[in-house]
Design goal:
The complex is a heterodimer of chains A (about 260) and B (about 220). Chain A is mostly helical and about 260 residues long. Chain A contains 12 helices and no strands. Chain A is elongated and about 65 Å long. Chain A starts with 18 loop residues before the first helix and ends in a 5-residue tail after the last helix. Classes of the chains: A mainly alpha (about 260), B mainly alpha (about 220).
Amino acid sequence: MARALTKKDQDGNLYTRPAFVEEKIDGALGQDLPTLLRRSQVTQKSNPDFLPLECLVHLIREFRRQDDQHAMSTFLPVLLRRCESILKSKVPDDYLPMAEDVREEILGEFSLLFAEDNPQGATTELDYYECKFFHAFRTFRMPIIERARAEREPLVSLPAEDKSGEEQDIDEVLSRLSEEFRQPATQINHASRNELLRAIETLPRDQAKAVLLCYFFGFSEESEDPSETTAATLCDVTGRTIRNRLGRAMNALSKILKKEDLCQ
Amino acid sequence: MNVSDSTPLKDVLYAFSMARPIPNAELLDDFARRYPTHAAALTDFAVSIVLDLARGEDDEEAAHAIEPTVSKAVSRAMSRFQNKLFEVQQSRTTGATLAATQSDVVNPFAPLDRKGFRHLAEHLNCNAVFVQMLRDREIEPATIPPRFTQKVSDELSVPMELVAAHFAAQPQVYGGQYYKSMEKPRASTRVSFEDAVKQSGLTEEQQTYLLGLLS
């Protein structure tokens, strides 16, 4: 049976692994290393030999606790290769300059978590990765990606700011934002939503933030009620600043979307 | 509501991320109220998660196929891992000698006995001196042809990343060997793969074969 996790959530409850992860770990713990090595390289979920990344993290931590250096050094590269394939989708070469370096940085930093993991079983960051690997891994990678983005931002060509946008185009953008982001989860057109998100991503970050807070999350620009959370309170600016940012963002988006022939 | 603004930002972000696949206003509002000093970071993070959707949902099957060969990124990550592990172990083993701690760092050649050593040399088409240089990391890792690293990996039945990480780690003197000297041997400076081939007393045929891997 898999060792219990020790990390607690913000309400003081212990994190627990999903049942399917527990099941996979239980099945894997008794298997020999060659079998596990073969299984660890299977990435199709439908394959009965598939070991989820949560399970692989658990196994590597167990090897660390047992001070089995050979097993640890055999399985960690496999985990890193699986992470690398995820990163190639999430940080593709055309996403930002020197994306390959960013992927390398993420993998390198991530590998350190295993070296720093406490063999005595003390609470560590890796507990998160045994519960929901993808959610934990995005938490890990995003600050590194954002840092890289910030460093490289002057190198990225941004759409020119133009305040003479036509009202009609802006109305179309607003309508599309509302349409795409207010859909029930089951009716989301992923391709269309992702195209819109990619367009928003090209905006300066403060504008993108204003757009998403108001249109994706649905926060008000500002409120007279001081206890209400709004886009303005979250960004620690005035409502007027949010409106200015939205205005510039709409102008830029209408041009981007028109250019891409997406806004029809 | 449990308001605890002293929680480290990293833990707050993990908790936020674990709560929902895609954050919504309610979650962001809740966390921003619980952790007001982290509200700005949480907002940036929530926005990043949403923008990240542009490159698809988190799904291994939708991701790129795993590379069949070792990548530079994985090799370097393994090297960083080994170095950090060494550092962590060293800090935990107060008073232990460097040599003793170094023996804890994985060396894929370490399990080889004399016979295994000779057998490996034969299969790599080289000699024991050359294998010893590989074992002790005396060859500049950047000059070792990937095809050769792959062959070593195959012969030792260990992942190529592990072999590459071993080559990339700091040179060492293998503690299990005897030495004839007034002083304990020290790790030497590294030589290129080409120089190692020329200086190891290999036959002409072996040299030609190994140098051919460079092209």
